[in-house]
Design a protein that fits this description.
This protein is α/β, with parallel strands linked by helices. Helix content is 42%, strand content 13%. It has two domains: 8-102 and 112-243, Type I PLP-dependent aspartate aminotransferase-like (Major domain) (Aspartate Aminotransferase, domain 2, 3-Layer(aba) Sandwich); 246-380, Aspartate Aminotransferase, domain 1, CATH 3.90.1150.10. It is built from 13 helices and 14 strands. The strands form four sheets. It has a seven-stranded mixed β-sheet with strand order 1-9-8-5-4-2-3, sandwiched between helices. It binds pyridoxal-5'-phosphate (PLP).
Length: 381
Amino acid sequence: MNIPFLDLHAQYEFIRDEINPAIQQVIDATAFAGGSFVEQFEHEFAAYCGTRHAVAVNSGTTALWIALAGLGVGPGDEVITVPNTFIATVEAIIFAGATPVFVDVEEGTLNMDPAQLERAITPATRAIMPVHLYGQMANMPAIHRIAEEHGLYVIEDAAQAHGATCNGQRAGTWGHAGCFSFYPGKNLGAYGEGGAVVTNDDGLAARMRVIRDHGQSRKYYHDVIGWNARMDGIQGAVLSTKLRHLDDWNAERNRHAQLYDELLEDVEGILPPVKAAYSGHVYHIYPIRLTERDRLMQFLNQEGIGCGIHYPVPVHLQKAFRNSGYQEGDFPVAELSALQELSLPMYAELSDEQIQRVCEAVRDFAGSQLDARSISRASRG
Ligand SMILES: *Cc1c(COP(=O)(O)O)cnc(C)c1O
């Protein structure tokens, strides 16, 4: 049985009868760049998140950058984020002209550690950019309180957290801006690239709409220097169609995670993901941790099981950051997770049988690894 890491085709088969006419509608209306289908999706996504506005753009990376630009975060400003994220979080800070400052993450959730956040604040700090990693939100009550105390913006990187909650409140709605990616493999994925920023701030929403359209509020009259960051019409129609299924798909992911948790609970050497008490998780990723990560990955691949690593190199140790002043050892929790994390197949269309097969393979591997056993006892305390 071959089990891919991700199976976008299975999802398309399930929604084909809705998606095909939705795309055809855009072609019939020739509403290709921005336009009514994008506007409709913006209304629907804002309503879903529970915010006043959603501003659709052409990627999650753009969403992060345009939120910073819209808030006026730029040269001379420091933005605090975490090193165990996809590079886009940090690219956006740098493209806005600001300076990224990293803090380490909590052992369990691997999300921003509020205690370390507090210590990293300087007079130059303007914003905090927590990342809701793997579909689980960061500790937003603590982060929000620190931001209030110091008068800082909070911009959530919710690219992996469509529909996730913290104490029942949705991702994207805790900060001044919540940034989403609709990259095809995300919980809500376009048929191409896409992103959005949600906010309750009318002024910020208006500024982002102008920036994403060449700085113009009227065609060919440019008030500020902007960019072309518009969403395609086809993506708007696809996302409207898929948004209707998002809660069901997230519920399926939760069911799968529960089955994984049960089947992996007593496997020596394997640490299943930690779910915080405040968390409504959407399991964008199902991450396990073990010391023999690379060998398990190789073993699973040989068994026809796809898996991934999120992420093999923390941002502060990337070659692109070699002149940033950061070095190995600066963020031990993030660095250890980069060595130990393995992402198992996770998508709504997985069958119980497939999950059982994955866990059987993990169990076979663990059973043959004597050294993995002793290590797991040590790291479980
Ligand atoms: C996917 C992702 C992004 C970037 O989104 P794109 O749509 O690919 O530009 C940013 N941050 C995180 C945490 C992501 O997972």
